[in-house]
Amino acid sequence: REAYPGDVFYLHARLLERAAKLSPAHGGGSLTALPIAETDAGNLSGYIPTNLISITDGQIVLSASLFASGQRPAVDVGLSVSRVGGKAQKPALRGVSGRVRLDYAQFQELEMFTRFGGISNARVAGQIARGARIRALLSQPRHTGLRLADQVALLAALADGALDGVDPGAIPALRAQLPAWLDAHAPQAVAALGDSGMLEDATRAALVGAVAALAREEGGS
Predict the structure, then answer these.
(1) How many helices (H) and strands (E) does the chain have?
(2) What is the Cα–Cα distance from 104 to 143, expressed in whole angstroms?
(3) Which of 38, 40, 103, 209 has its CA 20 to 30 A from that of 181?
(4) Cβ-defined contacts of 190-198 (< 8 Å, 24+)
(5) Where does residue 131 rank: exposed (0-12), middle (13-18), buried (19+ CB within 10 A)?
(6) Per-chain mean pLDDT for the chain
(7) Hey, what's the torsion of the CAs at 177, 212, 142, 191, to 10 degrees?
(8) Residues forming a β-bridge with 58
(9) Which residue has the higher pLDDT, 211 or 195?
(10) Is the per-residue pLDDT at 2 higher than 70?
(11) Buried b (16+ CB within 10 A) or exposed e, 151-172
(12) Is the pLDDT reported for residue 1 higher than 70?
C-alpha cells in the first residue's frame, strides 16, 4: 500500500460514482463505468484489483493461460463474478446456466492438471468430455446470436445429459440447425417459454427431448 498515493483509493470511488442513473429532469439515461486493471500474473489480491472489486458489481477476469491456449474471449469463469447478472436474466436461463457454469469451471481446472499426466479414471474422463462439449457449445461465430428458447434448450440438454454422446466437433452444426428444428418439433414449448420466461417441467422436457432428437438425427447420440 505504501507504493500508492494516499488518496488513490478515494480516487477510485470518486471516479466510479459518476456511473449512475440520471433523472428525467436532466435528460434521463444512465452511465456505465468499466474500470480495467492489469493484474500481476493473474493475482487478484493486489491493492488495486481488490479495491475495484469491492466497489463494482462484479468482475470479468481474463486469463493469459486461456488466451495462450486459443480460447477467445479468455474468460476465467471460476474467478469472474456478477452480483446482478442473475437478476437481469430470465428465470428460465438463470435456472439452467448455474450447473453448466460450475461444470465448465471444474473442467478448466481438470484440463490444466491432465496436461501433466494421463486421465486417472472414468469419472475424470467423463468430466473432461463434458467440458469439451460445453466449450464447443459456448463458442459461436461473430455477430450471431441465439434466442432465449435456443439457449435454454441447449443448456438444459447439457445439464440433463442429453448431449453426453455427442462429439464436440458436431456441436456447431447442431447449434446452427436448432432454431428451425425447435420451431418444427417443439413450437408450443418455444411459445410458452417466450411468453412467460419461466421453464416449467413440461416445457423443459419438450425442449430437451427435441435437442436429443436432433442429436440422434445428426448421428451424434
Answers:
(1) 10, 2
(2) 24
(3) 103
(4) 190/149, 193/92, 193/148, 193/149, 193/152, 194/147, 194/148, 194/149, 197/90, 197/91, 197/92, 197/148, 198/91, 198/92
(5) buried
(6) 86
(7) 70
(8) 82
(9) 211
(10) no
(11) bbbbbbbbbbebbeebbbebbe
(12) no
CA atoms of 59 and 71, how far apart (whole Å): 19
What HEC string does 149-194 produce?
HHHHHHHHHHHHCCCCCCCHHHHHHHHHHHHHHHHHHCHHHHHHHH
Comparing 30-34, 83-87, 128-132, the range with the smallest average pLDDT is 83-87
Going by the DSSP 8-state scheme, the letter that residue 116 receives in this structure is T
Which amino acid, 111? E
Cα–Cα dist 45/121, whole Å: 35
Residue 157 in grid coordinates? 440438454
The tally of CA atoms less than 13 A away on the side-chain side of residue 163 is 31
